[in-house]
Amino acid sequence: MEQVEPMEQVEPMVQVESMAQMELMVQMEQTVQVEPNLVVFNAALSACEKGGAPQQALSLLSTINEHELRPDLYTYIALVSSCSRLAQWERAISFLDEMIDSGIKPTKEIWTGVITACGKAYQWKRAIELLERMESSSKEPCVNAHVLTSVISACGRVGQWREALRFLRKIPAAKRSELHYNSILLSFRSSIIFGVNDTFEDSSH
After folding, report:
1. Residues sharing a CB contact under 8 Å with residue 91, sequence separation 6 or more, in sequence order
2. How far apart are CA 168 and CA 160, in angstroms?
């Protein structure tokens, strides 16, 4: 029977993999005189992000620009996910705007990552604005439980329990999880810390 590696062993292994990929890119240029392409950079970005080295992933962007390579969807997915891990919400939104301007349609994974970055930085109003922006950007229903979960979490962190409940009601009961209810409970406790008024305030924009 195959043995599953503990998570604390897996992440360092992925970090080693990302470093090996970056070293390989340098060797390609210096020894073989072959410039790494976007596929190679995207693989390194993804390895850094998934290996718990998001700052290293973001630093690779300058190297991509130096090679005059145009980021694609997979590049932005890794960059936004790295921003999400680091709570760099302004940079995440910047990447979102940049990809839209370049004609790349954001996926739900991108929207979720940007909203999560805002939530981790206590930017709950930004998270709601992004959700509304996401809804208005598509004629088809595009908001799913994952996106709403990120918004609920963003509201819960700062004690906006009424907003958290409002978005929880948009998720079918069958798709609600312990995570959702924990976020609601957190919002009740956080409302005391942040001094949130108990009266309802219309947050529509």
Report:
1. 58, 83, 117
2. 12
pLDDT tens digits along 74-123 = 999 999 999 999 999 999 999 999 999 999 999 999 999 999 999 999 99
100: CB partners within 8 A, 6+ apart: 106
- Residue 52's region, left for phi above 0, alpha for psi from -120 to 50, else beta, is left
Q: How many CB atoms lie within 10 A of CB 31?
A: 8
C-alpha to C-alpha distance for 108 and 130, rounded to whole angstroms: 12
Model-wide pTM > 0.85: no
Q: How far apart are CA 9 and CA 76, in angstroms?
A: 27
Q: In which band, very low, low, confident or very high, does the pLDDT at 194 lie, cut at 50, 70 and 90? A: confident
Task: List the structure tokens of 48.
Answer: 């850094």
Q: What does the pLDDT look like over 25-66, one tens digit per residue?
A: 555 455 445 567 899 889 989 988 888 889 988 999 998 999
Structure tokens at 176: 């609600």
Tokens 């908001």, residue?
A: 143
CA 128/CA 60 separation, integer angstroms: 30
Helix axes 38-50, 7-30, angle to 10 degrees: 150
Contacts of 25 (CB under 8 A, 6+ apart): 36, 40, 41, 44
